[in-house]
């Protein structure tokens, strides 16, 4: 098990938990909570693979992602009152997942010879599309369209990885730099309550 794969699983678990918690907050039944957890954890990577033509998608090639998402969602559903203390730490696990998903998505796009902008889009999509689906299914404005520094952190990380790739930087070094950049920006945004500017009315 590589470090990247381990971080990918941690991110998957964090994303599944955030989806399941969103379902509980919207008073969904067990199936709704499971669907939201699964979609949040695997939706971005699945959409990326479909667009890249890499079929079947990653979650069907390695069902560990599906099992992990379902188990975490079940745990949240049955024990959410006892696990409420995890709500804040989940923000930090989510940041790790964000950085990892960006690196995996961007790296995969580069392996498919996708251009600069396309590779960034695939990285951002991998990290954020699941959360968008979660928010839409639970009748909320998607997080990436609100004030939080979230997708913008992914754009910076994906652009950095793509630039380093074209500068022939070894992939492990470039991936680590990009992931740490996303994680650092996201954690700083949480700590300092950073937000992007809004249009004045």
SSE layout and pairings?
Elements: H1 3-25, H2 30-52, H3 58-61, H4 64-79, H5 87-111, H6 116-137, H7 151-166, H8 171-192
Helix pairs in contact: 1-2, 1-4, 1-5, 2-4, 2-6, 5-6, 5-7, 5-8, 6-7, 7-8
Distinctive features:
mainly alpha, 8 helices
- Element-level helix/strand string: HHHHHHHH
- Note the overall shape: globular
Q: Describe the biggest sheet?
A: none
Beta strand count: 0
Report the mean per-residue pLDDT as an integer: 90
Strand content: under 5%
Give the termini distance in whole angstroms. Answer: 52 Å
Rg is: 16 Å
User: Structural class, from secondary structure content?
Assistant: mainly alpha
The DSSP helix count reads 8
Give the uncertain stretches in residue-range form.
Answer: none
Percentage of residues assigned to helices: over 70%
Characterization of the model:
- The chain is mainly alpha-helical and 201 residues long.
- It has helices spanning 3-25, 30-52, 58-61, 64-79, 87-111, 116-137, 151-166, 171-192.
- Helix 1 packs across helix 2 (30-52).
- The radius of gyration is 16 Å and the shape is globular.
Write a brief structural summary.
With 201 residues, the protein is mainly alpha-helical.
């Amino acid at each position: 098990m590589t470090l990247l794969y381990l971080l990918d699983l941690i991110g998957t678990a964090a994303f599944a938990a955030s989806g399941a918690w969103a379902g509980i907050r919207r008073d969904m039944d067990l199936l709704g909570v499971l669907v939201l957890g699964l979609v949040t954890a695997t939706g971005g990577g699945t959409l990326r693979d479909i667009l890249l033509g890499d079929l079947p998608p990653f979650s069907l090639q390695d069902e560990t992602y599906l099992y992990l998402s379902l188990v975490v969602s079940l745990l949240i559903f049955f024990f959410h009152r006892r696990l409420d203390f995890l709500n804040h730490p989940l923000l930090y696990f989510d940041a790790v997942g964000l950085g990892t998903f960006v690196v995996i998505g961007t790296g995969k796009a580069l392996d498919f010879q996708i251009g600069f902008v396309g590779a960034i889009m695939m990285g951002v999509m991998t990290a954020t599309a699941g959360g968008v689906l979660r928010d839409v299914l639970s009748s909320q404005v998607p997080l990436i369209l609100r004030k939080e520094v979230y997708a913008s952190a992914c754009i910076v990380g994906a652009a950095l990885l793509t630039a380093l790739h074209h500068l022939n930087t070894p992939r492990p070094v470039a991936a680590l730099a990009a992931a740490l950049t996303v994680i650092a920006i996201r954690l700083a945004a949480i700590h300092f309550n950073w937000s992007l500017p809004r249009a004045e009315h």
